[in-house]
Amino acid sequence: MSLDKKTILNYICCPICKSDVSQTGTRLTCKTCGKIFTVSNGYVRMMSDSTNDIKLSIRKWDELYKKQFDDQTFYQDFKVYKERYFDSVYSQIKLEKKLSKNSIYLEIGCGPFFIGQLIANECKMIVGVDFCPHALMIAKKMLDEKSIKNYLLIQADILALPVKSNTVDLIYGGGVIEHFNDTKKCLSELYRVTKQGGVSINTVPCLNIGSLTYRQVWGNIPNFPVLRQFAEFIHIHILRGKHMVFGYELSFLPSHLTKLHTEAKFRKTTVKNFEIEPEFNFIPKTMRAPFVYLAKKSPLFWPMIKVSAFK
Ligand SMILES: [Zn+2]
Protein backbone atom coordinates (compact mmCIF):
# COMPACT_ATOMS: atom_id res chain seq x y z
CA MET A 1 0.00 0.00 0.00
CA SER A 2 1.04 3.48 -0.72
CA LEU A 3 0.48 5.27 2.55
CA ASP A 4 4.15 6.12 2.77
CA LYS A 5 5.19 9.54 3.94
CA LYS A 6 6.13 10.76 0.46
CA THR A 7 2.71 9.96 -1.02
CA ILE A 8 0.88 11.60 1.83
CA LEU A 9 2.98 14.75 1.77
CA ASN A 10 2.71 14.97 -2.05
CA TYR A 11 -1.08 14.84 -2.26
CA ILE A 12 -2.64 15.56 1.13
CA CYS A 13 -3.39 18.93 2.69
CA CYS A 14 -5.40 20.12 5.67
CA PRO A 15 -9.12 19.88 4.79
CA ILE A 16 -9.87 23.08 6.67
CA CYS A 17 -7.14 25.59 5.83
CA LYS A 18 -5.55 23.68 2.89
CA SER A 19 -2.03 24.05 4.31
CA ASP A 20 0.57 21.30 4.12
CA VAL A 21 0.65 18.67 6.82
CA SER A 22 3.59 17.08 8.59
CA GLN A 23 3.67 13.41 9.52
CA THR A 24 4.97 11.69 12.62
CA GLY A 25 4.15 7.99 12.65
CA THR A 26 0.39 7.66 12.20
CA ARG A 27 -0.22 11.28 13.13
CA LEU A 28 -0.70 14.12 10.64
CA THR A 29 -0.54 17.70 11.87
CA CYS A 30 -1.57 20.78 9.89
CA LYS A 31 1.41 23.12 9.67
CA THR A 32 -0.83 26.20 9.96
CA CYS A 33 -3.92 25.52 12.06
CA GLY A 34 -2.40 22.67 14.07
CA LYS A 35 -5.37 20.35 13.60
CA ILE A 36 -4.42 16.70 14.06
CA PHE A 37 -5.47 13.78 11.84
CA THR A 38 -4.58 10.10 11.84
CA VAL A 39 -3.71 7.28 9.49
CA SER A 40 -5.27 3.93 10.39
CA ASN A 41 -6.74 0.79 8.81
CA GLY A 42 -4.85 1.72 5.64
CA TYR A 43 -6.58 5.03 5.00
CA VAL A 44 -6.10 8.65 5.94
CA ARG A 45 -8.78 9.96 8.29
CA MET A 46 -9.38 13.60 7.50
CA MET A 47 -12.98 14.42 8.28
CA SER A 48 -13.48 18.05 9.16
CA ASP A 49 -16.12 18.78 11.78
CA SER A 50 -19.32 17.44 10.23
CA THR A 51 -22.75 18.92 10.60
CA ASN A 52 -25.47 16.70 12.08
CA ASP A 53 -27.09 15.82 8.72
CA ILE A 54 -23.72 14.60 7.40
CA LYS A 55 -23.15 12.58 10.60
CA LEU A 56 -26.55 10.95 10.09
CA SER A 57 -25.78 10.13 6.45
CA ILE A 58 -22.43 8.62 7.43
CA ARG A 59 -24.05 6.41 10.04
CA LYS A 60 -26.74 5.26 7.59
CA TRP A 61 -24.34 4.47 4.74
CA ASP A 62 -21.67 2.96 6.95
CA GLU A 63 -24.17 0.49 8.39
CA LEU A 64 -24.75 -0.73 4.85
CA TYR A 65 -21.02 -1.05 4.09
CA LYS A 66 -20.34 -2.72 7.43
CA LYS A 67 -22.89 -5.39 6.52
CA GLN A 68 -21.21 -5.88 3.12
CA PHE A 69 -17.83 -6.02 4.85
CA ASP A 70 -19.01 -8.64 7.36
CA ASP A 71 -20.93 -10.75 4.82
CA GLN A 72 -18.20 -10.35 2.15
CA THR A 73 -20.94 -9.70 -0.43
CA PHE A 74 -18.64 -7.14 -2.08
CA TYR A 75 -16.89 -9.89 -4.07
CA GLN A 76 -20.13 -10.75 -5.83
CA ASP A 77 -21.05 -7.05 -6.21
CA PHE A 78 -17.67 -6.41 -7.85
CA LYS A 79 -18.19 -9.29 -10.27
CA VAL A 80 -21.60 -7.96 -11.30
CA TYR A 81 -20.24 -4.41 -11.63
CA LYS A 82 -17.33 -5.57 -13.77
CA GLU A 83 -19.44 -7.71 -16.06
CA ARG A 84 -22.51 -5.51 -16.45
CA TYR A 85 -21.69 -1.86 -15.84
CA PHE A 86 -17.97 -1.06 -15.93
CA ASP A 87 -17.41 -1.00 -19.72
CA SER A 88 -20.30 1.36 -20.30
CA VAL A 89 -19.35 3.72 -17.46
CA TYR A 90 -15.64 3.78 -18.29
CA SER A 91 -16.18 4.34 -22.01
CA GLN A 92 -18.30 7.39 -21.18
CA ILE A 93 -15.55 8.70 -18.87
CA LYS A 94 -12.84 8.11 -21.48
CA LEU A 95 -14.81 10.07 -24.08
CA GLU A 96 -14.01 13.20 -22.06
CA LYS A 97 -10.50 12.45 -20.81
CA LYS A 98 -8.05 9.64 -21.48
CA LEU A 99 -5.82 8.51 -18.64
CA SER A 100 -2.09 7.94 -18.98
CA LYS A 101 0.69 6.55 -16.79
CA ASN A 102 1.18 10.10 -15.45
CA SER A 103 -2.46 10.63 -14.53
CA ILE A 104 -3.95 11.12 -11.09
CA TYR A 105 -7.52 9.78 -10.89
CA LEU A 106 -9.74 10.93 -8.04
CA GLU A 107 -13.10 9.36 -7.33
CA ILE A 108 -15.40 11.23 -4.97
CA GLY A 109 -17.86 9.08 -3.03
CA CYS A 110 -15.81 6.08 -4.17
CA GLY A 111 -17.50 3.48 -1.95
CA PRO A 112 -15.60 0.17 -2.36
CA PHE A 113 -13.74 1.83 -5.27
CA PHE A 114 -14.61 -0.73 -7.97
CA ILE A 115 -13.64 1.60 -10.85
CA GLY A 116 -10.32 2.40 -9.18
CA GLN A 117 -9.49 -1.29 -8.87
CA LEU A 118 -10.16 -1.78 -12.58
CA ILE A 119 -8.14 1.19 -13.88
CA ALA A 120 -5.26 1.42 -11.38
CA ASN A 121 -2.78 -0.02 -13.91
CA GLU A 122 -3.59 2.81 -16.36
CA CYS A 123 -2.74 5.64 -13.92
CA LYS A 124 0.08 6.95 -11.79
CA MET A 125 -2.18 7.11 -8.75
CA ILE A 126 -5.81 6.39 -7.92
CA VAL A 127 -7.29 8.38 -5.04
CA GLY A 128 -10.57 7.32 -3.44
CA VAL A 129 -12.50 9.63 -1.14
CA ASP A 130 -15.50 8.53 0.88
CA PHE A 131 -16.92 9.39 4.28
CA CYS A 132 -17.68 5.77 5.25
CA PRO A 133 -14.91 3.87 7.06
CA HIS A 134 -16.25 0.45 6.03
CA ALA A 135 -16.41 1.39 2.34
CA LEU A 136 -12.71 2.27 2.53
CA MET A 137 -11.93 -0.91 4.47
CA ILE A 138 -13.53 -2.97 1.68
CA ALA A 139 -11.62 -0.95 -0.93
CA LYS A 140 -8.32 -1.46 0.88
CA LYS A 141 -8.88 -5.20 1.27
CA MET A 142 -9.70 -5.64 -2.42
CA LEU A 143 -6.84 -3.42 -3.63
CA ASP A 144 -4.35 -5.31 -1.48
CA GLU A 145 -5.67 -8.67 -2.66
CA LYS A 146 -5.11 -7.51 -6.25
CA SER A 147 -1.57 -6.38 -5.30
CA ILE A 148 -2.37 -2.83 -6.42
CA LYS A 149 0.09 -0.40 -4.83
CA ASN A 150 -0.60 3.00 -6.42
CA TYR A 151 -3.61 3.98 -4.36
CA LEU A 152 -4.52 6.47 -1.72
CA LEU A 153 -7.74 6.18 0.32
CA ILE A 154 -9.04 9.14 2.28
CA GLN A 155 -11.98 9.42 4.64
CA ALA A 156 -13.16 12.95 4.04
CA ASP A 157 -16.02 15.32 3.42
CA ILE A 158 -16.20 16.33 -0.26
CA LEU A 159 -17.04 19.90 0.71
CA ALA A 160 -13.66 20.03 2.50
CA LEU A 161 -11.32 17.90 0.40
CA PRO A 162 -7.91 17.25 1.95
CA VAL A 163 -6.34 17.06 -1.52
CA LYS A 164 -3.76 19.63 -2.64
CA SER A 165 -4.79 22.19 -5.26
CA ASN A 166 -4.06 21.51 -8.97
CA THR A 167 -3.12 17.85 -8.52
CA VAL A 168 -5.83 15.77 -10.22
CA ASP A 169 -6.18 14.98 -13.95
CA LEU A 170 -9.58 13.34 -13.78
CA ILE A 171 -12.28 13.50 -11.13
CA TYR A 172 -15.24 11.17 -11.31
CA GLY A 173 -18.34 11.15 -9.13
CA GLY A 174 -21.10 8.68 -9.91
CA GLY A 175 -24.24 10.16 -8.37
CA VAL A 176 -22.52 12.20 -5.66
CA ILE A 177 -22.75 15.97 -6.14
CA GLU A 178 -26.57 15.98 -6.12
CA HIS A 179 -26.52 15.06 -2.43
CA PHE A 180 -25.23 18.44 -1.26
CA ASN A 181 -27.45 21.36 -0.49
CA ASP A 182 -24.54 23.66 -1.33
CA THR A 183 -23.65 22.54 -4.89
CA LYS A 184 -21.51 25.65 -5.47
CA LYS A 185 -19.21 24.88 -2.56
CA CYS A 186 -18.82 21.31 -3.78
CA LEU A 187 -17.95 22.38 -7.35
CA SER A 188 -15.47 24.98 -6.08
CA GLU A 189 -13.61 22.21 -4.26
CA LEU A 190 -13.59 20.04 -7.40
CA TYR A 191 -12.26 23.00 -9.40
CA ARG A 192 -9.54 23.68 -6.83
CA VAL A 193 -8.07 20.17 -6.88
CA THR A 194 -8.29 19.75 -10.69
CA LYS A 195 -5.10 20.42 -12.68
CA GLN A 196 -5.05 22.90 -15.57
CA GLY A 197 -6.18 20.76 -18.51
CA GLY A 198 -7.94 18.34 -16.19
CA VAL A 199 -11.61 17.48 -16.11
CA SER A 200 -14.28 16.85 -13.50
CA ILE A 201 -17.00 14.39 -14.57
CA ASN A 202 -20.15 13.77 -12.57
CA THR A 203 -23.36 11.90 -13.21
CA VAL A 204 -26.49 13.39 -11.66
CA PRO A 205 -30.27 12.94 -11.88
CA CYS A 206 -31.84 14.96 -14.66
CA LEU A 207 -34.67 17.34 -13.85
CA ASN A 208 -37.48 16.38 -16.22
CA ILE A 209 -40.90 14.78 -16.10
CA GLY A 210 -39.25 11.60 -14.83
CA SER A 211 -37.69 13.23 -11.77
CA LEU A 212 -40.94 15.02 -11.04
CA THR A 213 -42.82 11.72 -11.00
CA TYR A 214 -40.96 8.48 -10.21
CA ARG A 215 -38.07 10.14 -8.34
CA GLN A 216 -40.60 11.51 -5.87
CA VAL A 217 -40.79 7.93 -4.56
CA TRP A 218 -37.54 8.74 -2.73
CA GLY A 219 -38.02 12.45 -2.24
CA ASN A 220 -35.94 13.99 -5.02
CA ILE A 221 -35.72 17.78 -4.89
CA PRO A 222 -35.89 19.45 -8.34
CA ASN A 223 -33.27 22.21 -8.40
CA PHE A 224 -35.46 24.85 -10.02
CA PRO A 225 -36.74 28.09 -8.46
CA VAL A 226 -40.00 27.71 -6.51
CA LEU A 227 -40.20 23.95 -7.31
CA ARG A 228 -37.14 23.41 -5.10
CA GLN A 229 -38.55 25.40 -2.20
CA PHE A 230 -41.89 23.64 -2.60
CA ALA A 231 -40.36 20.14 -2.71
CA GLU A 232 -38.05 20.89 0.23
CA PHE A 233 -41.04 22.12 2.21
CA ILE A 234 -43.05 18.97 1.42
CA HIS A 235 -40.24 16.40 1.81
CA ILE A 236 -38.37 17.92 4.73
CA HIS A 237 -40.96 19.82 6.75
CA ILE A 238 -44.24 18.00 6.06
CA LEU A 239 -43.05 14.43 5.42
CA ARG A 240 -39.96 14.90 7.65
CA GLY A 241 -37.71 13.05 5.22
CA LYS A 242 -39.86 9.92 5.28
CA HIS A 243 -39.29 9.27 1.56
CA MET A 244 -35.73 10.58 1.37
CA VAL A 245 -34.14 7.14 1.39
CA PHE A 246 -30.90 8.39 -0.19
CA GLY A 247 -30.89 11.46 2.02
CA TYR A 248 -30.97 14.87 0.40
CA GLU A 249 -30.98 14.56 -3.41
CA LEU A 250 -31.34 17.21 -6.10
CA SER A 251 -32.09 16.85 -9.80
CA PHE A 252 -30.76 19.39 -12.33
CA LEU A 253 -31.55 21.01 -15.63
CA PRO A 254 -28.52 20.80 -17.98
CA SER A 255 -28.45 24.59 -18.34
CA HIS A 256 -28.36 25.06 -14.57
CA LEU A 257 -25.50 22.56 -14.19
CA THR A 258 -23.51 24.45 -16.82
CA LYS A 259 -24.18 27.74 -15.00
CA LEU A 260 -23.07 26.30 -11.64
CA HIS A 261 -19.83 24.94 -13.14
CA THR A 262 -19.12 28.25 -14.89
CA GLU A 263 -19.57 30.04 -11.56
CA ALA A 264 -17.08 27.60 -10.05
CA LYS A 265 -14.65 28.92 -12.75
CA PHE A 266 -14.46 25.86 -15.04
CA ARG A 267 -13.63 27.14 -18.55
CA LYS A 268 -15.91 24.77 -20.48
CA THR A 269 -18.80 22.50 -19.45
CA THR A 270 -20.70 19.93 -21.48
CA VAL A 271 -23.81 18.01 -20.45
CA LYS A 272 -24.85 14.76 -22.15
CA ASN A 273 -27.23 11.95 -21.38
CA PHE A 274 -25.48 9.33 -19.27
CA GLU A 275 -26.20 6.05 -21.01
CA ILE A 276 -27.45 3.38 -18.64
CA GLU A 277 -29.84 0.51 -19.02
CA PRO A 278 -32.87 1.92 -17.22
CA GLU A 279 -34.04 -0.79 -14.85
CA PHE A 280 -35.94 1.28 -12.33
CA ASN A 281 -35.51 -1.35 -9.62
CA PHE A 282 -36.59 1.21 -7.08
CA ILE A 283 -40.12 1.40 -8.52
CA PRO A 284 -42.59 -1.32 -7.46
CA LYS A 285 -42.57 -4.05 -10.13
CA THR A 286 -46.15 -3.56 -11.20
CA MET A 287 -45.50 0.11 -11.98
CA ARG A 288 -42.12 -0.29 -13.69
CA ALA A 289 -42.91 -1.08 -17.33
CA PRO A 290 -44.35 2.30 -18.40
CA PHE A 291 -41.33 4.16 -16.97
CA VAL A 292 -38.82 1.91 -18.76
CA TYR A 293 -40.78 2.45 -21.97
CA LEU A 294 -40.94 6.23 -21.50
CA ALA A 295 -37.25 6.56 -20.54
CA LYS A 296 -36.21 4.75 -23.71
CA LYS A 297 -38.60 6.67 -25.95
CA SER A 298 -38.47 10.16 -24.50
CA PRO A 299 -35.67 12.42 -23.22
CA LEU A 300 -38.23 13.87 -20.84
CA PHE A 301 -38.01 10.67 -18.81
CA TRP A 302 -34.29 9.88 -19.17
CA PRO A 303 -32.95 9.51 -15.61
CA MET A 304 -29.24 10.47 -15.57
CA ILE A 305 -27.00 13.06 -17.18
CA LYS A 306 -23.22 13.36 -17.32
CA VAL A 307 -21.65 16.76 -16.74
CA SER A 308 -18.03 17.22 -17.77
CA ALA A 309 -16.26 20.38 -16.66
CA PHE A 310 -12.84 21.33 -18.06
CA LYS A 311 -10.31 23.49 -16.22
ZN1 LIG B 1 -5.13 23.51 8.78
UniProtKB/TrEMBL annotation:
PANTHER family: METHYLTRANSFERASE. GO terms for biological process: methylation. This is Putative methyltransferase. The keyword Metal-binding does not apply. Residues 100-203 form the Methyltransferase domain. GO terms for molecular function: S-adenosylmethionine-dependent methyltransferase activity. Pfam families: Methyltransf_31, Trm112p. The lineage of its organism: Bacteria, Candidatus Collieribacteriota. Keywords: Methyltransferase, Transferase.
